[in-house]
Amino acid sequence: MHVDNKTKSSKTKRSSNAHDRLLEVGVDVFGKHGFDAATTRMIAKKAGVNIAAIPYYFNGKEGLYHKVVGYIAGKLESQVKSTLVEIEERVAEGNLNGEEALVLLEKLLEKLINFMVGSPEAPRFARIVLREQLYPSSAYDILFYRIMAPMINAVSKMIATATGAMPSRAVSLCALTLIGQVIVFRVARETTVRALGLKGYSSDETAEIRRVILEQTRSMIEAMSRTG
Length: 228
Description:
- The chain has 228 residues and is an all-alpha fold.
- The chain has two domains: 1-59, Homeodomain-like (Arc Repressor Mutant, subunit A), CATH 1.10.10; 70-227, Tetracycline Repressor, domain 2 (Orthogonal Bundle).
- The protein is built from ten helices and no strands.
- Helix 1 (5-37) crosses helix 6 (122-134) and helix 5 (98-116) packs antiparallel against helix 7 (140-163).
- The longest helix has 33 residues, at 5-37.
- The chain is elongated and about 60 Å long.
């Protein structure tokens, strides 16, 4: 039987749409209900696809969840990857000075702020990321090795270079502190909005948060440089 190219293209498009819809809906359903309470029927119904599409594309519920976490990691990765690569290249060159390291650190944090605080996607992703922090599953390795570990490593290197400190556990703790000051505005959004009377978060509010975080970062690095 002859199947023309137009028919093949139509089937491929429908398959791609079903796969992508399941990922998008999975972000919302797993984020709202958690892995255990979310059901494949719930996800398939909301995505508007046959429930058989989940085992077909993802080999079941756990496979879908892992792909959803990978999808989130990919979105986060796309925001910071170019700066992470730039940092690695500059470190490899061996001629990075303290001020240049601080500028690169600020650039990386700014990208994280713009996405985690200012992006409309962030609230959807944050629910799953927070659940994985509180109740880590086997999928947490995806977030850790693709996002968290590279971020901590890059920030630690920039702190060490900017302050003249040797890489150490203390430097890594400082790196986590700097990253944490961004994350808190997402995980504690409701507290921030109520305490400060914010809209949560407009472009102006995001800019204000970004300014304060970068000022705090520079002050911390300068203080560490003076003490040694």
